[in-house]
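agent> Task received from the user: take the single chain below, predict its 3D structure, and emit structure tokens. No templates, no multimer pairing.
agent> Plan: (1) validate residues, (2) run structure prediction, (3) serialize to tokens, (4) report one or two observations.
agent> Step 1 OK, no nonstandard residues flagged.
tool_call: predict_structure(input=
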Amino acid sequence: MLAVTRLSATQDEAVHLVAGYSYWRTRDFRINPEHPPLAKLVAALPALAINPRLDTSSKDWQTPAEYPLGFSFLYGNDADRLLFWSRIPMIVIAAIGGLITFLWARDLFGPMAGAFAAGLYSFCPNVLAHGMLITTDVPVATFSLLTLYLFWRQGSRPNWRNSLGTGLALGAAMTSKYSGGILPVLIAGLAAYRALRQTDRRQAFIAEIQSLSIMAAACLFVIEAAYLFSASPFLYFKNTALVNANHDPNYQYYLMGQLKPSGWWYYFLAAFAFKATIVTLVLLLLAAVQTPSGMVSRWGEKILLAGIGFYLVAISVGAHDLGVRYLMPIFPLIYVWASRIVPAYSKSTLGRAVLVLVFGWQVWAAVSSFPDYIPYFNELAGGPSAGPDLLDDSNVDWGQNLKQAAAYVQQRGIEHPVYSPISSFDNPRHYGVNSELHPPGEFVSKTLPTGTYIISGHNLAWLKTVDPAWKRYTPVDRIGGLWVYRF
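)
tool_result: status=success, residues=487
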């Protein structure tokens, strides 16, 4: 919450905000169809009270050109006010994720484990980075977690009430982000497995089919509601074809100093290893080697592990290699499952000391990163300063540090910095920075004019890869995900 006012708009926030606001005002879903509506609608709720101007007669609306429209909408109104109030609902959704994390860990392993898991979630730099943004990553994580938790709460005998609740949560996950649209596959698989565990399998399968039918009906209702009952639910399924449609097919993905058009099968494993806290990695190991005890609900753990594995495989296969944020659904599942160590560890002095140590380390990872959570890298990866040597895009910078860059140049009296952001829709002049936007290609294999250069970590990763000279240059400062050079 304290970081909200310090950070400028990230690359996609203006688009998601104008899309959600336009849905409410026009019932027209032409803007940003590659993402379903729910998260955008929720984020735009406060804007209905602010009543900003939306120009539906513009060429950007008619085309539609979502990024120019988002830019003109955000900066043609009170940008900071719109950002602040529209980020509040996103924080609420992230907080709900923390509550569900607590409830599931408590129900499985006891109240102390619940508090431990919720604390890990609350001080996870990746959750803090994206939990405040007007984007879809944390909403789909929250509603996926809720879906799996309610599915587990059904026990071995689902009825229409708990099936309805699970279906509504599933519908919310599906309409938050299209990666939530694959969750029914996991739910159907878990339902089949649950039926196979029963003595009377025939009756169990009949009950599961009835339960899944109720869930499907609830999902369709949520989909229709997400389109404000103004479009056919089939629009949702039609728009799945647009996922990643705006991505350049020739785009070069980046990993550890290499550019590659097809990406890497292990990209997300590597990104997780770099971006997850050391505590998260250690707890995964401790939970894996701990001997199961009678306090552990094996069915609950199977759901957790199935969710982690399912999303990791599905995202690795289906998502472009752009950011660890795509793995957001696995973080709360990991924290719930890792809390299985708490009952056993809390019985001894040494065990309690370990719990205090790892929790304190998690808190430190978050506090020491404030407010720059997006460029967080763990200590084994080399910390944020090593970020552009390992990953790019929203892992290192997403446009969030423009306000801090403005304060930086004003305090130092830098009149005309050379500014090279991740997005051509950054607006430095809005914050008093007298600079044009410079693409990184301008800085390749050239003798650079004297001046102060503020370069996105995303661009820096690319520059170091294509121009060896940039590996020799030494930055004089870092502003979150922006790097400062003087020539």
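agent> Step 4: summary for the user.
Residues 393-486 form one domain.
agent> Done.
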